[in-house]
Every structure is written in structure tokens, then in C-alpha cells.
Design a protein that fits this description.
The chain is an alpha/beta fold. It contains 13 helices and 23 strands. The strands form seven sheets. A six-stranded mixed β-sheet has the order 3-2-1-7-19-18, with helices on one face. The chain has a four-stranded parallel β-sheet with strand order 11-10-9-15. Strands 4-5-6 form a three-stranded antiparallel β-sheet. The longest helix has 24 residues. The chain starts with 9 loop residues before the first strand and ends in an 8-residue tail after the last helix. The protein binds flavin-adenine dinucleotide. The site of flavin-adenine dinucleotide (FAD) has 32 residues, from helix 1, strand 2, strand 4, helix 6 and helix 9.
Length: 490
């Protein structure tokens, strides 16, 4: 255990090790409480840079440090792996599961920061052919698909086949993630890979950005949206299709429908879904127990102090909340997490409650390509090189851990000053592993015969195997020491 529990101390449980969960936990560093962070993954994920893992700029470790390592010096915090499947508000307990095994954890105060997942707007079957961008698994699968498409195109072209579809990359959703992804794939094709292939000209790859809305980057306002569109089209050769709704996705491409009812088929090997989010399904159980309504994106209505009606000891923060039209951005989660932590500390000290949660909007940033970004800070609108430097500074500050900042800076230099990508490695498992797991009954748990790891193999088989291994090792030593290895006729 990495934390030091004191008997009888107030128990705070935090669900999720994302922005809300991690910042809430850190804010409780000096409080007289024990904090247990329960996370579905063992890492803290910096989602805004997932697209750089998918396009080979950064490694997954740089944007997803181990939560345990990040909190190692916080003596009152411990970290538990587990997917929370149930919360019992009356009993003040929650149930989490790993590989089918359940753990029940009691709490005195609870901070729920389980974030959101991808939404396919009721068309979950699209996910098989158009992965989203919410996790490390997503980013690595996309990396495999993107670099794999160029490889398959090279093979096809050498056989004289038509490879246009393989060299077509479609990104659905023109919010910041979609814009950044489309921009990076275009740079990859036009700049990074342009000299790496023989049978194909990667510069001719088609990159299409689609959105049902009428402009790109709606949260940045009309002016920056229009400038970004021009930049994508003129400088990067991205086709931007607006007012176009995706109505079907298959292995070979997708169908878009325009406002006038016209439909279009785009043959594309690689499809990426960057449209729509759905809050963690934990809001459902919280809503059922409190009566707090849940909106269409699955977010739960919270009190102005981020607590649930009738349960002042339960805070919900970040992407899961429906409050004052707050956006689903990192700062809402960070500030919410800190607010909840402070409130818990004040209560324990017998201090009066804080004022209602107030979000301080620090602005929005998105990159379009190397050295080009857009920024909205209050009334200020920035574009180009200046905005890009701002993007660089902000991401360096918020990236967790000095080591990660240092190595990310190195990788950015390789990719933006040079034209390389340090993280192009992609394996077959990255591309097909997840689909294989979904076909197994019980998922990964179905692969683990003995979760407890208590019973060993049959003792007779183990003894025979040990004798074989020892004999093999002795033969290896004899071959090396006698100099027989590699001698003809021996
Ligand atoms: C690709 C992408 C790009 C983005 N770019 C930006 C950007 O540029 N700027 C910006 O401000 N915001 C950006 N965002 C949004 C931002 O990342 C989120 O708003 C923020 O992460 C929300 O924080 P959170 O704590 O609510 O959730 P998260 O950070 O998503 O954390 C949720 C945590 O809960 C865990 N979890 C989920 N369910 C369970 C469960 N049942 N049991 C246990 N643990 C669970 C998850 O594993 C995760 O650790 C981006 C998001 C994405 C996906």
C-alpha cells in the first residue's frame, strides 16, 4: 500500500484518476483524511494529447504516467485498480471489479470523477470500423490502422491495384480533437512519410474532415472557426465537409447525408470517430438513487456545490456534470476536483461552506499543424505561430511529471523542427486485439482461469517441466564452456 492509513480517520474515496480525480486527490494532500483513488486504469491520462500518440509523435507513457507513481509521495493516498460498477449511497459503499472479482470499499466522502466515453449517437456498431479517441487503447489502435493503411497501400500499389480507398482517411467530428487529428494525418502524409514509400505517393493521400454542424471548432466562435477551415483546406489539403451527417459506417467506407437530403459514399480504409461524448454510465445509478435528472449526454444535474441532492457527502465533478452549461474540458474537472477537496477539508475543520462552484474560463486552444494553432482567451483571439507557442507552453505545464515534459519536448523537436515521428511502432495486436477480446465471453476475465493465483499447476507436471528446464540449461552451459557450439560435425 502506498498510503498510510490512520485508524478512525475520515475516508475519502475518489472514482477515476483523470483530471478531476487526480487534482482532487492532490488537493487533499495535507488534509487529515485517507484518500483511496479507484481507477479503471492504472494511469492518469492526458487526453488532449491522445492524437499525438495515434499519429506517432508521442509514446503512450508520456501522456499516461502511472497514477501510483504520480501519487507515490502523497502519504495519505492509496491507489486501487478497479472499474466501479455500483455505488450504494445509503450504505456509503461502492463496488469495483477487476477481471471479474469484486471489491467493496466504504467511504465517508465520495468524489465521483469517472469522466465520459465516446458517443456514436445510438449507432454503437460504427465503433468497430471507426474507433473513437478516448483511451490509450483507442490511440494505439488508431496508430496501427493509420500506419497500417500506408503499408497496405504500398503492397496493393506494387500489385497494380487501386489503393485510393486505403489512402483515404476520414475524421468524423470537427471539434478540437477532429481538427487536430485531421491536421496531423495530413502532415504525416504530406511531410513525414513523403520519402518513405516506393509504390505510392503519400502526398496524394485524401484526408476528409466531416461534421454535421455548419462550422469547424464551434466552441472557439465563428471567426476562429472560419480561419481554421481555411488553414486546413489551403495549407494542409484537408477536405472539410460541413452540414454533412454520417449515416452509416462500414469496413470499406461511410455514407454522409447533406441537409438537402443528398447522400454520398466515401470509400475509406481508415475512419476515426471524434464526434460526441457520453458521460460515464455511473450517472444512471446516481440518478436512480437521488432523483437528479440526467441529460441527453448522460450528465447528471448537481447542486451548485457539486453535491448530489440529499447526499452532501457525494460530489460529482468534470465531464459527468450538468451544471450552468459548463463545457466538457479539463479545467472544469480540475477546478471541480479542487473545489470538492476544499469543501471536505472545510467541513472537517468545522468551517462554513464555500460559495457555489464557479468555473474560471481560462480559454481554449487547438493546434492545426506544426507551428499553427488557434486560441481563445477571454475576448482575445490568437492564430498562427503565437497561438502555437501558447499551446506548447500550456501543454508543458499541465503534462504530468518532469520526465514526461522533458521527453515530450524532445519528441516535439523531432516532429516539428525535423520531419520524423519517433513512435511509429504498431503491432497486429494493437489493431485487432480489442476486437478479439470483445468476441470472448466475459472479455479479458475469460482468459484468466485462476484470478486468485493461489493454486499452482499439477505438482507432477511441474516437477517434470522443472527437470526438463534444468537439463536444457546444463546442456547450454556445457556447449558454451567446451567451445563445441558452432563447430562443424560436433
Ligand atoms: C481526444 C480528446 C482531446 C481533448 N482535448 C482537450 C483540450 O484540448 N482541452 C481541454 O480542456 N479538454 C480536452 N478534452 C476534454 C478533457 O480531457 C476532459 O474534459 C477531461 O479529461 C475530463 O476530466 P474528468 O476527470 O471528468 O474525466 P477523465 O479525465 O476522462 O477521467 C475519468 C477517469 O475515470 C476513470 N473511470 C471511468 N469510469 C470508471 C469506472 N466505472 N470506475 C473507475 N474508474 C473509471 C477513467 O479511467 C479515468 O481515469 C479532450 C478530450 C479528449 C477525449
Amino acid at each position: 500500500m502506498d498510503g498510510e492509513a490512520k485508524a478512525g480517520r475520515h475516508q475519502v474515496v475518489v472514482i477515476g484518476s483523470g483530471f478531476g480525480g487526480l487534482f482532487a486527490t492532490k488537493a487533499l494532500k495535507n488534509a487529515d483524511v485517507d484518500v483511496t483513488v479507484i481507477g479503471r486504469t492504472g494511469h492518469h491520462l492526458f487526453q488532449p494529447l491522445l492524437y499525438q500518440v495515434a499519429t506517432g509523435i508521442l509514446s503512450e507513457g508520456e501522456i499516461a504516467p502511472s497514477t501510483r507513481e504520480v501519487l507515490a509521495r502523497q502519504r495519505n493516498a492509496r491507489v486501487l485498480l478497479g472499474e466501479v460498477t455500483d455505488i450504494d449511497l445509503a450504505a456509503r459503499t461502492l463496488t469495483s471489479k477487476v477481471l471479474g472479482r469484486a471489491t467493496v470499499t466504504p467511504y465517508d466522502s465520495l468524489i465521483v470523477a469517472a469522466g465520459s466515453g465516446q458517443s456514436y449517437f445510438g449507432n454503437d456498431e460504427f465503433a468497430e470500423f471507426a474507433p473513437g479517441m478516448k483511451s490509450i487503447d483507442d490511440a494505439l489502435e488508431l496508430r496501427g490502422r493509420i500506419f497500417g493503411a500506408f503499408e497496405l497501400a504500398e503492397l496493393g500499389a506494387s500489385r497494380g491495384e487501386d489503393v485510393d480507398a486505403l489512402l483515404t482517411f476520414v475524421v468524423v467530428g470537427a471539434g478540437p480533437t477532429g481538427v487536430e487529428m485531421a491536421g496531423q494525418i495530413a502532415e504525416l502524409a504530406r511531410r513525414t512519410l513523403k520519402r518513405d514509400f516506393d509504390a505510392i505517393n503519400t502526398r496524394h493521400a485524401r484526408v476528409v474532415l466531416i461534421d454535421a454542424a455548419g462550422q469547424v471548432l464551434p466552441p472557439f466562435g465563428a471567426e476562429l472557426g472560419a480561419k481554421t477551415k481555411v488553414q486546413l483546406e489551403r495549407k494542409l489539403g484537408v477536405e472539410v465537409l460541413l452540414g454533412a451527417m454520417v449515416t452509416d459506417v462500414t469496413e470499406r467506407g461511410l455514407v454522409v447525408q447533406y441537409k438537402d437530403g443528398r447522400t454520398d459514399w466515401i470509400a475509406a480504409g481508415t475512419k476515426i470517430w471524434a464526434a460526441g461524448v457520453q458521460a460515464s454510465s455511473l450517472t444512471k445509478t446516481l440518478s436512480e438513487q437521488t432523483g437528479a435528472p440526467v441529460d441527453r449526454a448522460g450528465r447528471i444535474r448537481v447542486n451548485p456545490d457539486l453535491t448530489l441532492p440529499g447526499y452532501p457527502e457525494v460530489f460529482v465533478v468534470g465531464d459527468m456534470i450538468d451544471l450552468d452549461h459548463l463545457p466538457g474540458v479539463a479545467q472544469v474537472a480540475i477546478q471541480g476536483g479542487k473545489y470538492a477537496a476544499k469543501e471536505i477539508e472545510r467541513r472537517l475543520a468545522g468551517k462554513p461552506p464555500q460559495k457555489p462552484f464557479h468555473y474560471f474560463d481560462k480559454g481554449d486552444l487547438a493546434t492545426i499543424s506544426r507551428f499553427q494553432a488557434v486560441a481563445r482567451i477571454g475576448k482575445l483571439r490568437l492564430t498562427g505561430f503565437v497561438a502555437w507557442w501558447l499551446w506548447l507552453g500550456v501543454h508543458l505545464v499541465y503534462l504530468t511529471g518532469f520526465k514526461n515534459r522533458f521527453t515530450a519536448l524532445g519528441h516535439w523537436a523531432v516532429s516539428f523542427i525535423g520531419r520524423g515521428r519517433s513512435e511509429r511502432t504498431a503491432t497486429e495486436q494493437q489493431i485487432f486485439g480489442r476486437q478479439a477480446l470483445t468476441r470472448l465471453e466475459g472479455g479479458a476475465a475469460g482468459l484468466v482461469s485462476n484470478v486468485d493465483g493461489l493454486a499452482g499447476p499439477d505438482p507432477a507436471i511441474a516437477a517434470r517441466r522443472r527437470a526438463e528446464l534444468e537439463e536444457h540449461a546444463l546442456a547450454e552451459i556445457r556447449l558454451t564452456d567446451s567451445g563445441e557450439r558452432g563447430q562443424p560435425g560436433r
